[in-house]
Amino acid sequence: PRGLGAAYMGPNPAGDGEAWVERLRAECEPEHHWKYRREFLLRNGGEESREEEGAELRRLISFSMVWANHVFLGCRYPPEVMEKVMDMAAGITVTNAPTHTLRDDLVSKVKRRAVKK
After folding, report:
1. CA 49 to CA 41: how far, in whole Å?
2. Nearest-angstrom CA–CA distance, 106 and 76
3. Coil, helix or strand for 97?
4. pLDDT tens sequence across 32-87
5. Contact 98, 74 (CB under 8 A)
6. What is the pTM of this model?
7. In terms of CB atoms within 10 Å, which of 7, 80, 82, 115 comes out highest?
């Protein structure tokens, strides 16, 4: 089975190329999201990140999910986390990413309207 639970199951032989990353796809993850999160994982997954059950792999998975949630769902995280994942994602160009209206944008629009009256 695929999914994050499956990410830590099974052997992870050295020299398996890109096969290690395929175990990390969430079962319900859309192909469009996976394409870019996979790229994020491959760009940032050094040998130490590929170790089964390793802290580096768990950290990499977490950062990839934070980045994907930000890009595709509009989630926001503390500035330090956002800076880290955006640095890790430098050079990844996402096409057809949704645009999100943030709460702060809506509040500022309402405030501008109130000032004009």
Report:
1. 9
2. 15
3. coil
4. 999 999 999 999 987 766 666 688 899 999 999 999 999 999 899 999 999 999 99
5. yes
6. 0.69
7. 7
